[in-house]
Amino acid sequence: MFLFHQWPPVDVNVFITTSSSNIRTMKTLLIITAFIFGSPALVFAQTGLQKESIKVWGNCGMCKKKIEKAAKSAGAKTATWSEETNVLKVVYEPAKTSSTAIQQAIAKAGYDTQDFTADNTAYGKLPACCHYDRKGTDSSTTSQH
Asked: With 0-12 CB in 10 A as exposed, 13-18 as middle and 19+ as buried, what is 121?
């Protein structure tokens, strides 16, 4: 004969004896969850990162690659140059590099920036498609304006 008080068939002793194990499991899951959801906050909360927009003269997709590569070689964590706006957006750590160092590297690659002018030799080595209208007539080697 079936008795309702026995349904569902659960052994109460299982919960009592494994309660410390369940607590450890729940603590572990809580720690893992906190780590997974807390890690992105730590990454985005890195202090000391500087974001900057820098005017850089150029023309084409090849310019984009060279400008971004030069910026990264000078210590920029990220560098994205827009053909349409001629603006380079960089993120860098001021303790490791500076806007000046990034712009000097870009000028050495042959591209004029808002504060530096590439020398004629570097500009002349650029492919024909990369010959942009120069920002000024002064073409001293990466001189600051």
From this structure: exposed
Exposed, middle or buried: residue 74 (CB in 10 Å: 0-12, 13-18, 19+)?
Answer: buried
pTM for the whole thing?
A: 0.63
| 67-96 per-position pLDDT tens digit | 999 999 999 999 999 999 999 999 999 999
- The two three-digit tokens of residue 73, written as one number: 């070689």
Q: Does 140 lie in the same domain as 97?
A: yes
Q: Please indicate, yes or no, whether residues 40 and 55 belong to a single structural domain of this protein.
A: no
- Do 140 and 75 sit in the same domain of this protein? yes
Range of the domain at 23: 4-44
Token readout for 21 is 């194990």
- In this structure, what are the phi and psi dihedrals at residue 65, rounded to the nearest 5 degrees? -60, -45
